[in-house]
Amino acid sequence: MTAYTRGAARLLSGAGLAAALLLPAAVPAHTADGGKGQELPAMPSALDADADCTPASRETAQKQDWSRQRLDLDRLRGHGTGEGVTVALIDTGVDPDASGLDGRVTASGTAADDCVGHGTFLAGLIAGTGGDSARLAGVAPGARILALRGTDTRGEASASLVAQAVREATEAGADVIAVTVALPRRDATLTRAVTEARGAGAVVVAAATPDPPSRGTDEIPSRLYWPAGEPGVLSVADMLPGGARPDNALPTTGIDLAAPGAGVVSGGPRGDGHYLGAGASAAAAYAAGAAAMVRAAHPDDSADAVTGRLTATAYPADIPQLDAYAAVTTVLGDSGASSGTERAAEPLSVRDTSSADRATGRATLFVILGSAAVLTVLWAAFTLPRARARGWRPARAGGTPED
């Protein structure tokens, strides 16, 4: 290798190293938590028969997750907190003393003992204050939670437990009933309980599917799950930051809304740490929180009108995407406000976090082009004086210009 070649190689290597050092600053890691790169323990929706209760998390989220940005919860705070509304949460129970829920949880029977932690996690999405992390508050941080158990202590759901919980929620006068478990078969007792709840004026929100099992879902056929499949129940599925359903989501039909359901951050029943959760249960919790906000902002609306408002103001897509801010603030026509069947003429767009990805792409392109420009200038500064000294003749093999 000639001296000239060696010099050029060193120059190229130096420029390449500079570009390599600059590029990671412009390209964030896209991880399972929606691109935020937060490493938190996962919150299970059920436990193995011999597993201990979910331990306290030692990790604390350092930033707001994508789901709260997508739902524009910071701006929603200016229009209320859901105060005066009670949301019945039917899951694994809720610890009344969990961080961010103190004083606003009523737990029926054994529902105060949440070994799994999943129900407490979801309660934080609905009505948590975020504790010391205010930007991790739920949708309706002023609402009350009525905790009811729809599962056994390990998180296994049953129709009889869910039906009993729906009846208790109806008797307690809950404004919103969130059923965040999903059953594979329709049950007559549960159907009657849901019908009675709707007749009493409750908004019933349900997970469109169970949370995905640990094994593959390719062999599981599409089917309706219950009570999401009942008439008048708002069926909510999970979505990724881009709006698509996760690859491992169970297939189903009859979905009314999609809401964030991947890499969602909330707390648990033990300690002040945070977890990552996913699935249609998280999406249904967000929708229930939005329903609580609508009920507080529009107290004269019927349950059907509340459900209709949530769907009418949703961001239009293959599966309409929950827009909590638009649901609370959009002025609907008289027929839409009373019956919930008319879509808003100009629904407000949800805050699409993909714009951050586009900004990152532009920054990356800028760095690449800038690095190329610097490389070109350095190459010219290195080669042109030598070429001029040779009279623009090629260098000899020894690397010195000819006489």
UniProtKB/TrEMBL annotation:
Q: Where is the Peptidase S8/S53 domain?
A: 82-320
Matching InterPro entries? Peptidase_S8/S53_dom, Peptidase_S8/S53_dom_sf, Peptidase_S8_Asp-AS, Peptidase_S8_subtilisin-like, Peptidase_S8_subtilisin-rel
Where is the segment annotated Disordered?
32-67
Catalytic positions are 91 (charge relay system), 118 (charge relay system), 281 (charge relay system)
Task: Tell me which UniProt keywords the record has, alphabetically.
Answer: Hydrolase, Membrane, Protease, Serine protease, Signal, Transmembrane, Transmembrane helix
Q: Does the keyword Protease apply?
A: yes
Q: Which GO terms describe its molecular function?
A: serine-type endopeptidase activity
| Pfam short name (any one) | Peptidase_S8
Chain ranges passing through the membrane: 363-384
Annotated signal sequence is 1-31
Keyword Transmembrane among record annotations: yes
Q: Name one GO biological process term.
A: proteolysis
**Which family is this protein grouped under?**
Belongs to the peptidase S8 family.
- Please give the name of this protein: Serine protease
